[in-house]
Design goal:
Elements lengths: L3 H22 L7 E3 L5 H5 L5 E6 L4 H17 L7 E6 L4 H6 L7 E6 L2 E4 L6 H11 L4 E3 L3 H8 L4 E5 L6 H13 L4 E5 L2 H6 L1
Parallel strand pairs: 1-3, 2-3, 6-8, 7-8
Antiparallel strand pairs: 2-4, 4-5
Helix pairs in contact: 3-5
Length: 200
């Protein structure tokens, strides 16, 4: 039979273990991460030129590990010019959003451009998320206005060049979509300049 000192020590250990477990389960303070629901998702995400969204499950260990890094990145990216927003969706509650965006594991991160989703292929720590999302901001293809500009971009690297009769070309829209999907892998250039057409 245990002595009262042993029982007291055991009770203290059990209380400490319970407190540590509760601390581990506590939600990370992330005031700069936008909490998204089915009813708010389109209103918040669609107008953004670029936004990162995490689909998570509260019980997921990887999600808990990502949470403080994601919170740090969200705060830092709000001071970017222009600001880049980060959001999160509890996919166990908002299951229709998880299905809509083909979420098959947790956490799943997706880059949204004016409501269209693209895979996130970046790191999972704050500095890496920040650097990756800064590269995602802005147009996926760079306009070039002369042959000299293009030759400067083709030196020592591969680039995809799109030639268009005007900025209103329907093909330009398809080119832009492809550039957004593949911007991590290739440099995209676009031109409507007559001398570029003549050369290429």
């Amino acid at each position: 039979m245990l002595s009262w000192k042993s029982l007291l020590a055991l009770a203290c250990l059990m209380t400490l273990a319970s407190l540590l477990r509760a601390a581990g389960d506590a939600e990370v303070h992330d005031p700069d991460v936008i909490k998204l629901t089915t009813s708010s998702f389109d209103k918040i995400v669609n107008p953004e030129e670029v936004m990162l969204v995490e689909f998570y499950a509260p019980w997921c260990g990887h999600c808990k590990h990502l949470a403080p890094e994601y919170a740090k990145a969200a705060t830092a990216l709000l001071s970017n010019d222009p600001p880049i927003k980060l959001g999160k969706v509890d996919a166990t509650v908002e299951s229709s959003l998880g299905q809509k965006y083909d979420v098959r594991g947790y956490p799943t991160l997706k880059v949204f451009r004016n409501g269209k989703d693209y895979p996130y292929n970046g790191p999972r720590e704050a500095d890496g998320i920040i650097a990756y999302m800064k590269k995602q901001a802005g147009p996926a293809s760079k306009p070039v206005n002369s042959v000299a500009d293009i030759e400067k971009h083709f030196v020592d690297r591969f680039a995809v060049l799109g030639l268009f009769s005007s900025e209103k070309s329907q093909l330009l829209s398809a080119f832009t979509s492809a550039a957004n999907k593949l911007r991590d892998d290739y440099i995209f250039l676009k031109s409507t300049a007559a001398d570029v057409f003549a050369k290429y």
